[in-house]
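Hey team,

Filing this mostly as a record. A colleague (T.K.) asked me to run one chain through the structure pipeline before their review meeting, and I want the input and output archived in the tracker in case anyone asks later how it was produced. No errors, nothing strange. Just documentation.

Input sequence:
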Amino acid sequence: MNQRKAGVVLSYISLGLGNLVGILYTPIMLNLLGKNEYGLYSLAVSIIGYLGLFNFGFTGSYMRFYAIRKAKNDDLGIAKLNGMFLSIFAAIALITFLAGIVLVYYSDSVLGSKLSVSELATGKILLTILVLNMCLSLPTTVFYVYITAHEKFIFQKTIGIIQVIVGPLTVLPILLMGYGSVGMVSVTAFLTVILNVANIYYCFKKLNIQFSFKNFDFSLLKEMSVFSSFIFLNVLIDQINWTVDNYILARVKGTASVAVYSVGASLNKYYMSFAVIIATVFIPQINKVVAEKNDNTELLGLMIKTGRVQFILLALIASGFVVFGREFINLWVGNEYENAYYICLILMVTATIPFLQSIGVEIQKAKNKHKFRSTAYFMIAIVNVIISIPLAKRYGGVGCAIGTSISLIVGNVIIMNWYYHKKLGLNMKKFWKEILSLLPALI
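Output structure:
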């Protein structure tokens, strides 16, 4: 079995284990933390996610520039690329640290007036730990993407499986001892450090990674910056669409409402992870095809092949959730979280179409034609925020989900299918003909 196939198999094993552990672990965690503290934890994680935007999209640009140099067998160019990325992410870590200091200092204002004094104090500690964890992790990003570029998915996914199993088993005793969310994020941060060290060791020991810091190529930096700026915009948009609802709810409703929304959003996150696994392992191949021959027929074939597999998986999960989701949530976390069913259902159903086309995003990046998507999505994300605030005030978490859903339909479904077909040269009529041929079986 080659690395790509093994990567898909191991990814789904990791995902299956992660979902199973999450399903078993979440009710225990909710019981030990309580509704308000879980909401506070979810809010802190959402806020820190915005500091991750300081990578400015450089992570997503590595594959493209690596593929170009690999196609030319330019080992020195790859070493310079590695050196440049390490330098960039070290600088980003410093910027993140400084921004994190400001964030922690003004945490009371950031978290909002709906939180109690004790919640604000705990929130400050959570933000501090999460900031430090992110600053330590950023410089190691180059090692992770280097492993992905070499398609060493077996190592990468095996480490992920270990993390999925060890994480909750390590955190649970901390929660049982009464250390709450602070203990939980501390242990998680420690495990992240160990994972990053494992990636660094593997790169030096097995992949013989090389770094060159001589003759810093500013022309390459400029080219990368232009390319990455639109990836950054995509990341910003995703951050707004998938996490801003927590912040809006915290400001207008409080942490209990955030907790209910987070339960629904976490189930949708599990659903999303099924969709993106296949696209992830095809990223190196997509960049290789574009760098060497830029064959739209081959790229469309990949998109159809992955889309069919994703449809089979997602249709099974979504249809099952529609029928049994409410009962599942009531049994899983209790009747007080029943609105999480409607939140998850709204997000899940409207997100299915773009998930089927997730490989198309990677094709855009490889072709350096992701600027339109970034610009269009940014405008729609702003609209999402504007309409979600009044919807949240009136309907709570369900209102936020409706706002996000509207933005997904307009941007990801209508606009992007037009762009794929008209501007990227991908025959979307053929794509949907192939996908919809599976619909009778689903019915």
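Quick notes for T.K.: The radius of gyration is 22 Å. The CA atoms of residues 68 and 420 lie 23 Å apart.
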